[in-house]
Amino acid sequence: MERKLLMLLATIAVQFLLTEGRTCNYYNYRCVGQGCKTVKTCDTDDQKCYSLYVTVHGRPQVLLKGCWKQDNACSQTGCVFRKRDQGPTLFCCCFGDYCNSSSPTQISNQTHAAASGK
Questions:
Q1: For residues 51 and 63, what is the distance between their CA atoms, to the nearest angstrom?
Q2: 69: number of CA atoms within 13 Å, CB side?
Q3: 90 in Cβ contact with 110 (< 8 Å)
Protein backbone atom coordinates (compact mmCIF):
# COMPACT_ATOMS: atom_id res chain seq x y z
CA MET A 1 0.00 0.00 0.00
CA GLU A 2 2.80 2.43 0.92
CA ARG A 3 4.62 1.70 -2.32
CA LYS A 4 1.49 2.35 -4.40
CA LEU A 5 1.00 5.66 -2.64
CA LEU A 6 4.60 6.67 -3.34
CA MET A 7 4.23 5.70 -7.01
CA LEU A 8 1.01 7.72 -7.26
CA LEU A 9 2.66 10.78 -5.70
CA ALA A 10 5.70 10.43 -7.98
CA THR A 11 3.43 10.20 -11.05
CA ILE A 12 1.50 13.32 -10.01
CA ALA A 13 4.74 15.23 -9.41
CA VAL A 14 6.13 14.30 -12.85
CA GLN A 15 2.88 15.31 -14.58
CA PHE A 16 2.91 18.62 -12.71
CA LEU A 17 6.50 19.35 -13.75
CA LEU A 18 5.79 18.48 -17.37
CA THR A 19 2.73 20.72 -17.61
CA GLU A 20 4.04 23.65 -15.60
CA GLY A 21 4.95 26.59 -17.84
CA ARG A 22 7.96 28.84 -17.89
CA THR A 23 8.01 31.83 -15.51
CA CYS A 24 9.00 35.13 -17.10
CA ASN A 25 9.24 38.73 -16.05
CA TYR A 26 6.20 40.56 -17.40
CA TYR A 27 5.78 44.20 -18.37
CA ASN A 28 3.41 46.11 -20.64
CA TYR A 29 3.95 49.84 -21.08
CA ARG A 30 0.17 50.33 -21.40
CA CYS A 31 -0.43 49.15 -17.83
CA VAL A 32 -0.19 51.96 -15.29
CA GLY A 33 -0.74 51.63 -11.57
CA GLN A 34 -0.50 49.06 -8.82
CA GLY A 35 -2.60 46.40 -10.57
CA CYS A 36 0.07 45.64 -13.16
CA LYS A 37 1.60 42.17 -13.17
CA THR A 38 5.38 41.84 -13.00
CA VAL A 39 5.63 38.04 -13.38
CA LYS A 40 3.80 35.67 -15.68
CA THR A 41 3.58 31.88 -15.66
CA CYS A 42 3.44 31.00 -19.33
CA ASP A 43 1.31 28.45 -21.15
CA THR A 44 3.03 25.15 -21.83
CA ASP A 45 3.43 26.15 -25.51
CA ASP A 46 5.33 29.28 -24.51
CA GLN A 47 8.63 28.00 -23.18
CA LYS A 48 10.72 31.10 -23.87
CA CYS A 49 10.80 34.61 -22.42
CA TYR A 50 11.32 37.87 -24.31
CA SER A 51 12.00 41.57 -23.81
CA LEU A 52 11.35 44.42 -26.22
CA TYR A 53 12.93 47.84 -25.71
CA VAL A 54 12.95 51.02 -27.76
CA THR A 55 15.83 53.48 -27.80
CA VAL A 56 14.75 57.03 -26.93
CA HIS A 57 17.43 59.74 -26.98
CA GLY A 58 20.11 57.03 -26.84
CA ARG A 59 18.62 55.25 -23.80
CA PRO A 60 16.74 51.95 -23.88
CA GLN A 61 13.18 52.07 -22.53
CA VAL A 62 11.26 48.85 -21.87
CA LEU A 63 8.06 48.33 -23.87
CA LEU A 64 7.12 44.71 -23.31
CA LYS A 65 8.30 41.62 -21.44
CA GLY A 66 6.63 38.24 -21.25
CA CYS A 67 6.28 34.77 -22.72
CA TRP A 68 7.41 33.79 -26.23
CA LYS A 69 6.47 30.80 -28.33
CA GLN A 70 9.08 28.24 -29.28
CA ASP A 71 11.70 29.83 -31.49
CA ASN A 72 14.90 28.04 -32.51
CA ALA A 73 16.77 31.36 -32.39
CA CYS A 74 16.09 31.61 -28.65
CA SER A 75 18.44 29.01 -27.26
CA GLN A 76 20.54 31.13 -24.88
CA THR A 77 19.85 31.20 -21.15
CA GLY A 78 20.20 34.98 -20.89
CA CYS A 79 19.02 37.88 -23.02
CA VAL A 80 21.33 39.03 -25.81
CA PHE A 81 19.58 42.02 -27.33
CA ARG A 82 19.47 42.42 -31.10
CA LYS A 83 18.40 45.39 -33.13
CA ARG A 84 15.14 44.76 -34.95
CA ASP A 85 14.91 45.21 -38.72
CA GLN A 86 12.71 48.27 -38.46
CA GLY A 87 13.16 51.22 -36.13
CA PRO A 88 15.12 51.77 -32.92
CA THR A 89 13.90 48.63 -31.17
CA LEU A 90 15.93 46.03 -29.29
CA PHE A 91 14.66 42.47 -28.90
CA CYS A 92 15.82 39.42 -26.98
CA CYS A 93 14.38 36.01 -26.29
CA CYS A 94 15.84 33.36 -24.01
CA PHE A 95 15.25 30.02 -22.36
CA GLY A 96 14.95 29.80 -18.59
CA ASP A 97 12.86 31.10 -15.73
CA TYR A 98 13.22 34.88 -15.37
CA CYS A 99 15.89 34.94 -18.08
CA ASN A 100 14.45 38.22 -19.43
CA SER A 101 15.19 40.20 -16.27
CA SER A 102 18.18 42.13 -17.64
CA SER A 103 18.12 45.40 -19.53
CA PRO A 104 20.06 46.00 -22.77
CA THR A 105 23.73 46.20 -21.86
CA GLN A 106 24.96 43.63 -24.36
CA ILE A 107 23.67 44.28 -27.88
CA SER A 108 24.42 42.02 -30.83
CA ASN A 109 25.04 43.60 -34.22
CA GLN A 110 22.83 40.97 -35.84
CA THR A 111 19.26 41.95 -36.56
CA HIS A 112 16.38 39.76 -35.48
CA ALA A 113 13.60 39.50 -38.06
CA ALA A 114 10.06 39.78 -36.78
CA ALA A 115 8.87 36.43 -35.49
CA SER A 116 5.59 35.14 -34.16
CA GLY A 117 5.45 35.32 -30.40
CA LYS A 118 3.08 36.47 -27.71
A1: 8
A2: 5
A3: no
